[in-house]
Hints:
This protein is an all-alpha fold. It has one domain. The chain is 85% helix and 0% strand. The chain is built from 5 helices and no strands. The chain has helices at 3-27, 33-64, 69-75, 78-94, 100-126. The protein is elongated.
Amino acid sequence: MPASIRLFLSASISFIFYFAWAYWANSMVTEDRLMLTRTAFLQGSYSAFMTAGFTFALEWAILKFKNSKLPTMFIAPLPPLSLQSILVIGINVANQTPNLWLTVAPSIFFSGMYGYAYCIALLRKVE
């Protein structure tokens, strides 16, 4: 599958999942539909954008460091994961997301899982 299709599919799935998650997570603490929709759209859009950026960065790192697999597999996901974590917390603080940690924790956790799984899959493909 071409890299552009992988990027689009990953970003689309991320948007749908995190839109639904943020809506549900915040519906436990507020009934303000405008806030729920805004928070869900913000988290979904942010997650789609970051997934595309994260995927692009991993593809680049794997191609750049494909001859040193062990360090690449462990190190390549760390910079985009750190940046993603800082940004997702920051935008949700700025948005005054009612249930901040429940909204962002899965994003950070699954970004890490995705980063390492994607990295392993790309390394196997390069071999």
